[in-house]
Amino acid sequence: MALAAAVLVAAGCGDTTRPEPAFMGTLNVVVTDDGVGAPGAWEGRLSADFRVSISRDGSDWVHLGVPTQIDLELQAADNALNLHPPIDVPAGTYPYVRIAGGWGLARIQGGAEVGGRAFPDPVHLRVGEERLSIETRLPTAIFVAPGSHMTFQIDLNSEDWVSPDNLEAGHVSEVDVETALTFRTHDRLPALAVPPPNRQA
């Protein structure tokens, strides 16, 4: 799943008292779209703004950064975008994730072949509705141990939502995006992760 936000915000999950450092871990977020096993042949980029939050109970949320604009190459196996730089969060188990932001724009280059159909001209895909808000329970919860340094990776899997029907409609639903997402947690930053442009939404 290849970004430097100019401002870090303190993680908060409803408590006014910040835990002692001994009970904190460090977490950062990367976004990828590796295209492994993707059908067809096409290239494109996604522009969007995202903020990722995590929760122990699905109601109190720890924000992992500020809303950050990204410009991500799609279907690039060697491209990992560092969405939120490392931030201290209270140690614990977090089964829930929320991805929020404005709608995105995927620009698919002309000459694409998707689902056995050819699209000779460039296509612009609107991703999401007026606002993007995805909340889901993770298949494997994020476990932040005291003193740990973790990376939370989100793979967009655009091969699942850049479909012939969506290309013809010029729109990708929030449900399509949510269904395609996969998540992984690493104990360090992937070597290929790079910072985004220094822009905030």
Could you characterize what this model shows?
By secondary structure, this protein is mainly β. It has two helices and 13 strands. The strands form three sheets. Strands 2, 3, 4, 6, 9 and 11 form a six-stranded mixed β-sheet that branches. Strands 12-10-1-5-13 form a five-stranded mixed β-sheet, with no helix packed on it. It is elongated and about 55 Å long. Mean pLDDT is 82; it is low at 1-19, 190-194 and 197-201.
- Give the biggest sheet: 6 strands, mixed
Low-confidence stretches: 1-19, 190-194, 197-201
Kindly provide the radius of gyration, computed on alpha-carbon positions and rounded to a whole number of angstroms: 17 Å
Question: Helicity, in percent?
Answer: under 10%
- How much strand content do the residues show? over 45%
Order of helices and strands: EEEEEEEEEEHEHEE
User: Per the principal axes of the C-alpha atoms, what is the gross shape?
Assistant: elongated
Measure the end-to-end span: 21 Å
The secondary-structure class comes to mainly beta
Quote the average pLDDT: 82
The tally of strands reads: 13
- The quaternary state of the protein chains shown equals single chain
- By DSSP (H or I, 4+ residues per run), the number of helices equals 2
List descriptors.
mainly beta, disordered N terminus, five-stranded mixed β-sheet, disordered C terminus, six-stranded mixed β-sheet, 201 residues
List the topology elements.
Blueprint: E1 24-32, E2 44-55, E3 61-63, E4 68-74, E5 80-90, E6 92-108, E7 112-114, E8 117-119, E9 123-144, E10 149-155, H1 164-169, E11 171-172, H2 174-180, E12 182-186, E13 193-194
Parallel strand pairs: 1-10, 5-13, 9-11
Antiparallel strand pairs: 1-5, 2-3, 2-4, 2-6, 6-9, 7-8, 10-12
